Recover the amino acids of this structure.
């Protein structure tokens, strides 16, 4: 017994060390963001913050109004991606798991293959298509582009949730006077809330993290998200890494908040969305 | 015909069958319409584009079919071969280390110890960060003069002089690979861990009784039983790593010159820097065909696995 206790302690220590090393980049991002510019180019670098300053945050988010615009755009695009995906994917996943549909297998293979498409391959034709119909520099255009990867992911992730519900639910509902649509909205949907949350979280993250469509489908700052703002800052700020890391930290903040509050749904989503049939 | 369908439906269908089957398709319709317009059509459009001569000048004007000219142009371009080689190096090296490190961590996290769930979640955080952020942070850590990575390497005596990781031709690709390995480790770990947790414990107990040590257990129980998970993971890895664009674009933009140019970056440059859309389309069609080949191999392998 005592032996196994020591072993457990040993593993915990080892795991702690691994986590510290592994998460060092995240620590270094936050640490750099609160380092005064004069400290930044200290050689050797101070691994722990000597004196913290929030100058770079004030510079970027209070004085510079551009950033507020980028953040607003990111919020619109992420929420839009999330809502549109849920609206399209939930009924589709329901049909593909519980209703009689011809060609289910083909549609599932199609969805799986779409997930494998390189973003750049979609960005090129979309750019030409969208510039003809005025969807470049447009929230809707970016949201539609993000759906290309979010929609298949959402359907594939939601399907096992629908399948796990007992059969005959719809029949029972129809006896109680529900039709096909009301039994879906009133009976089935509330039962798959965990699945909905997983999908919603991931689709928000897809929208928040998108770079390639923001890069190719926008030409001005009007609808550009924070990811592109960060990229443009690399060019503008050059080596003012404290400013850059402040923007990066703030861009990571929603992810960290969502992650901490929705952890359970996130871990489920990763294994479900990637491996199940 | 109809009656037959309904009869069949009553046996196989879980839902109500008293409603017209057409209603079923209404649930699917919005998603299918979206996919037709914004996924299938663009792929088709991209294929057509690759046989035309569309560039920024004639985008809204007269465009001609030019047969395989764009493909010939691509196959005659030195940069295409450099990009293809870099893509292979990037994919193989990234996957190898992601997988090996991910597997080692999965084995570690498979044993019960206090704080396990917290640690596992913390690892995932790295995977969930937007790639733009990860790329920027690694760019800073790999900076030549003040980068913390050079500082670590110098203080343990591995290098004498600071390396300009991302601005030197022979280390730029390696720099992006290191960042990509960091991103991929948690995903590999989580998938392998969920596979490990389904393995029956009795097998290990029996092996222990037979006197098999850890290494033998790993070789003769863990690896064979994990085969399907490993295959799927590696195939997914190849497909997802082959198409990495954001990270490399942020860290090096494919440079210096072409030293870290991979196929997606090459296609991007043709279409969005040189605005030769058709030439870019031919490169992405080549990538598409390569990915389909990988997918076919994957399906064949998983069929074989099932037959086993």
């Amino acid at each position: 017994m005592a032996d196994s206790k020591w072993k457990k302690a040993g593993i915990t220590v080892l795991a702690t060390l691994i986590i510290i090393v592994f998460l060092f980049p995240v620590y270094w991002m936050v640490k750099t963001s609160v380092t005064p510019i004069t400290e930044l180019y200290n050689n050797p670098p101070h691994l722990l913050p000597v004196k913290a300053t929030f100058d770079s945050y004030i510079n970027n988010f209070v004085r510079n109004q551009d950033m507020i615009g980028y953040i607003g755009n990111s919020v619109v695009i992420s929420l839009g991606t999330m809502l549109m995906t849920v609206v399209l994917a939930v009924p589709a996943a329901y049909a593909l798991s519980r209703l009689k549909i011809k060609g289910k297998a083909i549609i599932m293979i199609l969805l799986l293959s779409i997930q494998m498409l390189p973003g750049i391959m979609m960005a090129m034709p979309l750019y030409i298509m969208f510039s003809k119909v005025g969807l470049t520099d447009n929230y809707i255009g970016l949201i539609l582009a993000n759906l290309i990867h979010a929609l298949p992911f959402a359907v594939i992730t939601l399907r096992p949730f629908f399948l796990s519900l007992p059969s005959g639910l719809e029949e029972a509902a129809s006896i109680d006077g529900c039709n096909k649509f009301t039994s879906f909205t009133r009976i089935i949907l509330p039962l798959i809330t965990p699945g909905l949350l997983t999908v919603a979280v991931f689709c928000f993250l897809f929208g928040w993290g998108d770079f390639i469509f923001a890069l190719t489908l926008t030409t001005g700052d009007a609808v550009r998200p924070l990811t592109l703002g960060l990229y443009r800052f690399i060019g503008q700020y050059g080596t003012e890494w404290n400013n850059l890391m402040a923007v990066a930290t703030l861009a990571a903040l929603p992810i960290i908040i969502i992650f901490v509050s929705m952890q359970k749904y996130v871990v489920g989503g990763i294994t479900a969305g990637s491996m199940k049939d | 015909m109809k009656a037959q369908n309904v009869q069949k439906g009553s046996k196989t269908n879980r839902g109500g069958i008293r409603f017209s089957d057409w209603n079923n398709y209404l649930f699917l319709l919005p998603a299918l319409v979206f996919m037709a317009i914004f996924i299938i059509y663009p792929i088709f459009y991209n294929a057509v584009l690759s046989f035309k001569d569309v560039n920024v000048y004639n985008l809204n004007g007269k465009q001609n079919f030019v047969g395989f000219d764009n493909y010939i142009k691509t196959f005659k371009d030195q940069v295409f071969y450099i990009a293809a080689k870099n893509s292979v190096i990037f994919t193989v090296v990234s996957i190898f280390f992601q997988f090996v490190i991910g597997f080692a961590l999965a084995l570690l996290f498979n044993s019960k110890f206090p704080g396990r769930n917290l640690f596992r979640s913390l690892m995932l955080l790295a995977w969930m960060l937007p790639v733009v952020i990860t790329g920027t942070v690694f760019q800073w850590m790999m900076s030549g003069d003040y980068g913390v990575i050079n500082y670590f390497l110098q203080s343990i005596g591995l290098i004498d002089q600071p390396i300009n990781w991302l601005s030197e031709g022979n280390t730029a690709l390696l720099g992006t690979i290191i960042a990509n390995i960091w991103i991929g480790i948690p995903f590999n770990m989580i998938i392998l861990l969920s596979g490990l947790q389904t393995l029956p414990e009795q097998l290990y107990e029996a092996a222990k009784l037979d006197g098999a040590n850890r290494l033998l257990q790993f070789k003769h129980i863990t690896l064979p039983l994990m085969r399907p998970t490993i295959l799927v993971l590696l195939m997914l890895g190849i497909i997802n790593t082959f198409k990495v664009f954001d990270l490399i674009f942020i860290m090096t933009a494919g440079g210096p010159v072409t030293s870290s140019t991979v196929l997606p970056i090459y296609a991007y440059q043709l279409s969005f820097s040189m605005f030769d859309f058709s030439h870019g389309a031919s490169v992405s069609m080549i990538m598409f065909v390569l990915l389909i080949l990988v997918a076919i191999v994957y399906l064949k392998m998983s069929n074989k696995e099932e037959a086993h």
